[in-house]
């Protein structure tokens, strides 16, 4: 690829990240082998787009509505703009790891589109937790925490996809699952660059208060990654979504803690 080709190529990769992670209308990107794995570098930036638009909505609504109502509408927007992508991952992961006893059984449940009691409970707790925490964030910093939460939660996909292989056996002619499209395919440069970018933006927006969101996000990524490796010897798309949700909630918790 020539130097002149890089800006259009990177723009296409960014649009691919937005197209995969959100329901925001973007020009459709042509499918190519490895397009999603190359787009991973822009996952944190796509998180800024999601969090930034939610922050703007909050700024517009907050002067006119009670905090809980504003938080409810912001949460509704977040669910709609992401198409419940990560909520689906959290629910499936809860069903799989909660109801499965063997690796094979867990992977079978993860593939099942139906939601069970573990998944339903996890989904309710996630929505309720985010509603309460967003409404409890420091008023002057709600926008910053929304941006940081969605950026750092999508950053988790970088180290997870760098270190963990796909949990499902892959055929040379067929990729099994969305998680396999990025598992062990993230480059070292993408991991380092995405990490520096995400942590620097967090520090810019939150100052010294960024330390705890960053540390808890790193810890959750490490712990869930080790858990996935132990239980299913790798990672699936649902696992990426589950860690994403947990990290988002954890960042809100950090903000509410200092309020």
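^ Assign residues to that structure.
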């Amino acid at each position: 690829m020539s130097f002149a080709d890089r800006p259009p190529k990177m723009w296409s990769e960014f649009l691919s990240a937005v197209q995969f992670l959100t329901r925001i209308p973007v020009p459709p990107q042509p499918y190519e082998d490895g397009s999603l794995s190359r787009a991973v570098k822009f996952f944190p930036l796509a998180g800024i787009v999601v969090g930034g638009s939610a922050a703007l909505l909050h700024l517009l609504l907050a002067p006119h509505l009670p905090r809980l109502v504003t938080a409810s509408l912001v949460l509704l927007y977040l669910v709609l703009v992401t198409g419940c992508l990560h909520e689906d991952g959290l629910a499936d992961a809860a069903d799989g790891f909660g109801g499965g006893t063997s690796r094979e059984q867990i992977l079978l449940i993860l593939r099942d589109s139906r939601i069970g009691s573990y998944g339903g409970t996890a989904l309710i707790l996630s929505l309720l937790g985010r509603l309460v925490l967003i409404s409890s964030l420091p008023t002057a910093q709600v926008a910053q925490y929304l941006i940081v939460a969605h950026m750092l939660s999508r950053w988790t996909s970088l180290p997870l996809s760098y270190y963990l292989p796909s949990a499902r056996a892959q055929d040379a002619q067929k990729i099994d699952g969305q998680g396999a499209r990025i598992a062990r395919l993230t480059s070292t440069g993408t991991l380092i660059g995405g990490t520096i970018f995400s942590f620097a933006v967090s520090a810019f927006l939150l100052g010294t208060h960024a330390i705890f969101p960053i540390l808890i996000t790193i810890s959750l990524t490490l712990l869930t990654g080790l858990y996935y490796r132990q239980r299913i010897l790798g990672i699936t798309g649902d696992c990426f979504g589950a860690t994403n949700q947990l990290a988002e909630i954890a960042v809100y918790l950090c903000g509410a803690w200092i309020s």
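Confidence is low (pLDDT under 50) at residues 1-5.
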